[in-house]
Write a structure and sequence with these properties.
The chain contains no helices and seven strands. It is an all-beta fold. It has a single domain, classed as SH3 type barrels. The strands form two sheets. It has a five-stranded antiparallel β-sheet, with no helix packed on it. A two-stranded antiparallel sheet has the order 1-2. A hairpin with a 2-residue loop joins strand 4 and strand 5.
């Protein structure tokens, strides 16, 4: 099973001084990710470590011209692409 035995959460960003984590993201959380020059909402599916750092697999909606959701796709990004956890 994809994601079995992998970290269930990831710390996002840091706040100076003291290098304290600014947020905690969990699988299933709705997050805001960098998307071109903008940001979009996405859902974390898997968090994993790779040779180049922590990565997240997120599910992103593909929107039509009127803002309606046409379909969804998944994208793998570095954890730094997450701008924040949505309430």
């Amino acid at each position: 099973m994809l994601g079995a035995g992998l970290p269930p959460s990831v710390m996002l960003g840091t706040v100076a001084p003291g290098n304290m984590p600014s947020a905690l993201a969990l699988r299933g959380d709705r997050v805001e990710i960098g998307w071109g020059l903008d940001t979009v909402e996405a859902t974390i599916e898997v968090i994993y470590e790779s040779g180049i750092g922590t990565r997240v697999l997120v599910r992103v909606p593909i929107l039509g011209p009127s803002g309606e959701e046409l379909e969804q796709t998944t994208v793998t990004l570095p954890v730094e692409a997450i701008h924040g956890v949505l309430a």
